[in-house]
Design a protein that fits this description.
Helix content: 25-40%
Number of helices: 14
Structural class: alpha/beta
Distance between the termini: 30 Å
Length: 478
Amino acid sequence: MGYHTLIRGALVVDGSGADAYRADVAIENQRVARIAEQIDAAADTMVDADGLVLAPGFIDVHTHDDLAVIHQPEMTPKLSQGVTSVIVGNCGISASPVQLNREPPDPLNLLGERADFQYPTFADYARAVQSARPAVNVGALVGHTALRIGHMAELQRTATEQELASMRIELREALQQGALGMSSGLAYRNAKQSDTTEVLALVKELTAFGAIYTTHLRTEFDQIIDAMDEALDTAREGRVPLIVSHLKCAGKGNWGRSTEVLSHLQSAAAHQKVACDCYPYTASSSTLDLSQVTPDSDVFITWSRAFPEQGGRTLAAIAEEWKLSLMEAAERLQPAGAVYHCMAVEDVENILSHPLTMIGSDGLPKDPHPHPRLWGAFPRVLAHYCRERQLFDLPTAIHKMTGRSAAEFGLRDRGLIREGAFADLVLFDFDRIESTATFEQPEQVARGIHRVWVNGALSYQPGRTGLERRGEFLFRGR
């Protein structure tokens, strides 16, 4: 019997958290056909993997790639670091269901311009992704803020009963069409006025579908425990799984609180289904938020609509040049994007190493000067935190990026190297893998990634072009 691809002599780390083992792995018809110590068979393509690690393709559970998968379907920033599946629609912002009669309000402007939002229904978006044939698989959440924008002329208040009824209908339709769940971004200006009752009413729509609720907490600063309690209570009352997005202790006044925060999350996990994701950096990135402009932490401007030439500079340097205070300069730059150096190394390490934590890049592909996590998050986990810092062993690191992620998001036959599972695979050199993306030069491919397969097709190999794009849309429950 012959196979499409036969990978020989790999050190298989299967995504379950179990120990690595040596094996040959055969691929046929998009799936892993056989795993054995030695497979004596013909294959169209033979790959010598001696000395290399074969893992499930990494699942980026927290992205803002909603429009990138359509407009840049090659998805090089993700594919080149071993990512084979992305979850879009995070932080309350999604490309669908959205109809705009004005420029996208903050933070929807992180995704694109008004003309980019052409998907009034979730089904429209799914069809557009499928037509674009992206190189990675795409699973999508519906954003709470996106729903608000579609049904509320004024966003600085909570929804009326009529507006909420319309939002619930639209969310229900998206869930029927295969959305994985709903996300919220309650820290953002155009969602923070929504009260818990509004969010809970929408979360209750998820229950019947077995869908999930992910949230960018109402605050990640001083009142983080209260914000976590709001999210936990909402998910518990709605009887849905909760994922806390990019868990962090932001602001110098909160450095050192990760033990308290994680203990709170762990206690809740005894009574309800809860998890979190984290990116492996001490700096965050989003739109320029005036409440985060303080002398305590460096702020780096990634873009500015009013002064595009100031992108790629620190706020302090711009303020000094303009002879303004930090706040005055920030106000003048709006609307804008920023990187905030706002976290302590010890807190990031505590959160990354916790058993409830998955890995998500939270990269912003629309940024002209993006945070390096867009291109480097997953290799950084393996190189810096696993190999060098030894926060966890290799099977645990891979589990956080694959098997655990697939289980939390209900991605069937993904995230594990098993016979019959989809052949989303990454082959890499653990001794050499490295993120080369930096804050100064963020758009750099990782070192040490040898090959990436998506649904059985070789989709990335350094130095090769014209490879297949075989990504699929990941509808909930299919």
